[in-house]
């Protein structure tokens, strides 16, 4: 990725260092396991978000569009479906760019900046991992420790890149 305006060499190098943590094998495992999850993207993303909010109901306050919706109505709210679609679009963009280093950096930067804007922190991303892993496991009969480790690494990288951009603000 070429350095964009206002982006230091240190930032570019820090992001690249994070992205280099994923092996080609992990890329392949993520792409393969996501394929089945992505076959019904909104439904599966809704499952992730519902599980996240069940465990961390306070996270609902991060998104202004969810604040006025009672917890009991959230699962059927069009606002949640829209966010599920946005979530899967972002995840799809990351996964589809995994074999193109420059494009992957661009996608990670875009997603990191959006999450910093909404005050999403490392812990939020880390806490989203378990619901993601549960849904991936439900979608993949061949889910195993290798898949778990690949996805865990990916979400750790996303959390790290968010923190890299947070430190720039």
UniProtKB/TrEMBL annotation:
Matches recorded under Gene3D superfamilies: Globins
Domain Globin positions: 21-167
Membrane-crossing residue ranges in chain numbering: none
Keywords from the named record: Heme, Iron, Metal-binding, Oxygen transport, Transport
GO-annotated molecular function: heme binding; iron ion binding; oxidoreductase activity; oxygen binding; oxygen carrier activity
PROSITE patterns: GLOBIN (PS01033)
Similarity annotation: Belongs to the globin family.
Subunit and interaction comment: Monomer.
Protein name in UniProt: GLOBIN domain-containing protein
Source species: Haemonchus contortus (Barber pole worm)
Lineage, broadest ranks: Eukaryota, Metazoa, Ecdysozoa, Nematoda, Chromadorea
């Amino acid at each position: 990725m070429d350095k964009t305006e206002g982006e230091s060499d240190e930032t570019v190098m820090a992001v690249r260092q994070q992205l280099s943590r994923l092996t080609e094998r992990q890329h392949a495992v993520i792409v393969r396991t996501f394929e089945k999850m992505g076959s019904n993207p909104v439904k599966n993303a809704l499952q992730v978000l519902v599980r996240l909010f069940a465990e961390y109901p306070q996270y609902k306050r991060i998104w202004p569009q969810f604040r006025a919706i009672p917890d009991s109505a959230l699962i059927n709210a069009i606002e949640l479906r829209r966010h599920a679609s946005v979530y899967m679009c972002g995840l799809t963009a990351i996964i589809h760019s995994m074999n193109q280093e420059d494009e992957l950096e661009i996608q990670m930067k875009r997603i990191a900046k959006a999450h910093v804007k909404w005050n999403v922190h490392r812990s939020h991303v880390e806490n989203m991992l378990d619901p993601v892993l549960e849904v991936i496991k439900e979608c993949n009969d061949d889910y195993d420790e290798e898949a778990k480790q690949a996805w865990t690494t990916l979400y750790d990288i996303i959390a790290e890149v968010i923190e890299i951009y947070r430190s720039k603000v």
